[in-house]
Design brief:
Blueprint: E1 2-6, E2 12-19, E3 23-29, E4 32-39, E5 42-53, E6 57-58, H1 62-69, E7 81-92, E8 95-104, E9 107-122, E10 128-139, E11 158-172
Antiparallel strand pairs: 1-4, 1-11, 2-3, 2-11, 3-6, 4-5, 5-7, 7-8, 8-9, 9-10, 10-11
Length: about 180
């Protein structure tokens, strides 16, 4: 098994959620870290862990970001991190299904990431690198994120389904 450190300067974790029933708000997390344990070419036998700083949420609107960090949503004062730890990896070639436990606001639920292995090779400095893109959808209510407002015309201010996209590059330094 080899240890690959996720290069967060060349990676991203982003999300989208419906707002007012007709638009989608997009955001991302700016501070996080993670690693992949696995053998090159045999990644289906490996594991992945990621820890996200809840205070690093960024939707481009400071007041909204403060609300998302607060008790109505992530409650970052009491739950400073979101975590993901894989429990199994299935698939072959470039298509993988990564199952794991996602913890948000102290609640842990299983999720499945539909991933694509986007490449692997040596960088100009002699390090091995590999890339992945992954997507999943989660219910925010399943993680205790239940704040909402009913709209006068019907519907709610914030949708339940959160679409998550991950693009990452990991590096295995030269020994």
């Amino acid at each position: 098994m080899s240890n690959w450190q996720i290069d967060t300067s060349h990676s991203s974790i982003s999300f989208r959620v419906r707002h007012l029933m007709f638009a989608k708000v997009r955001g991302s997390f700016g501070k996080w870290q993670g690693s992949i344990e696995g053998t090159s070419g045999q990644l289906a036998s490996g594991s992945t862990t990621v820890t996200i700083d809840a205070t690093s949420i960024d939707t481009g609107v400071p007041d909204r970001d403060a609300h998302l960090r607060g008790a109505d949503f992530l409650d970052a004062d009491n739950h400073p991190t979101l975590t993901f730890a894989s429990t199994s990896v299935k698939g072959s070639g470039d298509s993988l299904e990564i199952t794991g436990n996602l913890t948000i606001r102290g609640t842990t639920r299983p999720v499945v990431l539909h991933a694509e292995h986007t490449g692997e090779g040596k960088d100009p400095w002699g390090n091995r690198r590999l890339g992945f893109s992954a997507k999943t959808k989660i219910s925010r209510k399943e993680f205790g994120l239940v704040w909402n407002q009913v709209l006068e015309a019907g519907g709610v201010a914030v949708g339940d389904e959160i679409e998550v996209e991950i693009d990452l590059e990991a590096v295995q330094p030269v020994a």
